[in-house]
Amino acid sequence: MNEPLDGSALSQYFLLPTDASEAPVTGIWAERRRLASIMRTVIEHLTVADTPESELREAADTLQHLAAQLGAHPRRRKRDDIADTATPMDKHALIDFSPLIGLSNPISPPLELTLDGNTLRGRLRFGTAYEGPPGCAHGGCIAAVFDELLGYAQSLTSLPGMTGTLTIRYRVPTPLHTELHCEARVQRISGRKIFCVGRLYAGETLCAEADGVFLASR
Ligand SMILES: CCCCC/C=C\C/C=C\C/C=C\C/C=C\CCCC(=O)SCCNC(=O)CCNC(=O)[C@H](O)C(C)(C)COP(=O)(O)OP(=O)(O)OC[C@H]1O[C@@H](n2cnc3c(N)ncnc32)[C@H](O)[C@@H]1OP(=O)(O)O
């Protein structure tokens, strides 16, 4: 039933998060990650703290200045990731800027992934910025986590593709500010269709389940 996963087929295009965490991250990428981490904290404070208006104005003015400063530089080009001068971290850019697992993207929770045999495992914690019902994670954010998790699992086959259909069953509300763990695996492959399944837990409690059909490129 389980198709073997083979990360090596895609390793020429990007590093797995586990590989990347073993590589020393220094210089520009370390600073990108640090900035993203601080921005995540700013987002959390903005959504929970009862900050006085004057401090909000001051923070907005400071960030407006920083936004103008950061925006003054040329945009990175995709080909920088495959240039002869590309570092392993440059090649890892697609992953490091991911909206779900990217350590250099402040909107990622981030979801941390590890490969355990044929199962891809993830850990994350939703902050208040991901709130849907009071105290609970937004269903769309949970779906996004599953898209990434199952999408990554199917990428480890030699036939990666795009999400065709993603079905989520929300079993119980998923709590905020709680260590969550999730898992996904490729269930079967039929022609270009890769069928994946995944689950999300808070402790022993099953919060949500997902089925995904991914379509390998022709
Ligand atoms: C170029 C792809 C490579 C991409 C990945 C590459 C590398 C990986 C890199 C990094 C990976 C790291 C992490 C990944 C993490 C997250 C991944 C996120 C993934 C996404 O977030 S991705 C964005 C959302 N995604 C879309 O934006 C898709 C838009 N859409 C389309 O691009 C097309 O719509 C497509 C391609 C889905 C199908 O188009 P198509 O022309 O190839 O399909 P076609 O008609 O030939 O059908 C062939 C057979 O599939 C069945 N079929 C058709 N459509 C189906 C569907 N939707 N669901 C279930 N089954 C379907 C038919 O019923 C037929 O079945 P049968 O053979 O049995 O008759």
From TrEMBL:
Coiled coil: none annotated. It catalyses: hexadecanoyl-CoA + H2O = hexadecanoate + CoA + H(+); dodecanoyl-CoA + H2O = dodecanoate + CoA + H(+); (9Z)-octadecenoyl-CoA + H2O = (9Z)-octadecenoate + CoA + H(+); decanoyl-CoA + H2O = decanoate + CoA + H(+). One of its GO terms (cellular component) is cytoplasm. One of its GO terms (biological process) is fatty acid metabolic process. It is a peripheral membrane protein. GO terms for molecular function: thiolester hydrolase activity. Its EC number is 3.1.2.2. Its main location: membrane. SUPFAM superfamilies: Thioesterase/thiol ester dehydrase-isomerase. Belongs to the THEM4/THEM5 thioesterase family. This is Acyl-coenzyme A thioesterase THEM4.
